[in-house]
Amino acid sequence: MNAAIDTTLFDPASLDTGEALPRGAYREALKKAREVLFERFRAGEDIRRLVGMRAWVIDQILAHAWCALRLDAYTDVTLLAVGGYGRGELHPGSDIDVLVLHDQTTLGEAEGQAISSFITLLWDLGLEVGSSVRSQEECVEAARED
After folding, report:
1. pTM for the predicted model, two decimal places
2. Angle (nearest 5°) at CA 3 between 55 and 117
3. Mean pLDDT per segment of 10 residues, for the chain of length 146 residues?
4. Coil/strand/helix, residue 133
5. Dihedral over Cα of 103, 104, 110, 114: its sign
6. CA-CA-CA-CA torsion for 22, 26, 29, 33, nearest 10 degrees?
7. Which of 10, 111, 121, 144 falls 20 to 30 Å from 24 in CA-CA distance?
């Protein structure tokens, strides 16, 4: 899949609006991608390719928002895609499962607020989000219980 160079699906430059957090540009990018993917579906393009492209578009939006909220400045916090989204298979109507992994016993107040703002933004954009915020130890414990 060469979605990274497919500007008819998503143009990363469209997010460079000069705004710190370009909510309108995010919404427009999501709308355009939804329309293009639906057109391609109706034209008979391989569904596996389309769900991969959809995941790629969401990757771009989430990565941009993560950085716009300065979460990339925290070296002990990272964003991971999990579930179908983590496998690069994001069907229309599927939720976007993300894990915010941190390397602390207790998450700091500033980091916690920035993460909360990030998750709230995703919901504000109309994305169905399944999110968890866990330390490495909490992930190990959850895996043992699963």
Report:
1. 0.90
2. 40
3. 66 87 94 95 95 93 94 93 94 93 84 94 95 90 86
4. strand
5. positive
6. 170
7. 111
